[in-house]
Predict the structure.
Amino acid sequence: MGRPASKSDLLTAAAVNFEKLNQLISSLTETEQAAPFDFSNDEKKKERHWRRDKNLRDIYIHLYEWHQLLLRWTAANENGDPKPFIPRPYTWKTYGDMNTGFWKKHQDTPLEEARELFFKSHKEVLQLAESYSNEELFSKGVYKWVGTSTLGSYFVSTTSSHYDWAMKKLKAHKKNCKSLAAVSDN
């Protein structure tokens, strides 16, 4: 499926990728779930997030915090309080620093709490998406505060596309764990 361009596609993609993500996490052994992420030996993984996120909790928290960005942004703007999606002092050029701030903020958050926060916020985002019409989500110019994009694109980015990002990272982690286990068995 391509990038969702309708409300029904958005809701389906978000639900499907949420389920796939949870199946992938369930397929991890307890050891794999507890093992710290280490992508330092893979020179292809240069983006900042490969070094930032150290464990499954960090993935849950990252997804949760991006859900919160969407929920707060829509609530503020719907209530007549104009706010950008990326909160000040950050911009789209500096959102990596914002993500690092989310990571730092949650270093004492237990894994199970992070999981619960993510599940709850996923549900809230889907309920919010349900409250908009297809036109409100995928027609440009409906909401001045969305700018030149569509509201639906923000929902896609914080759900199905972000879940793809998380699955890619978790698959790489699982592969690393298998490689380390094979080396230690020899």
Residues 160-185 form the longest helix (26 residues). The radius of gyration is 18 Å. The mean pLDDT is 93. The chain is about 65% helix and 0% strand.
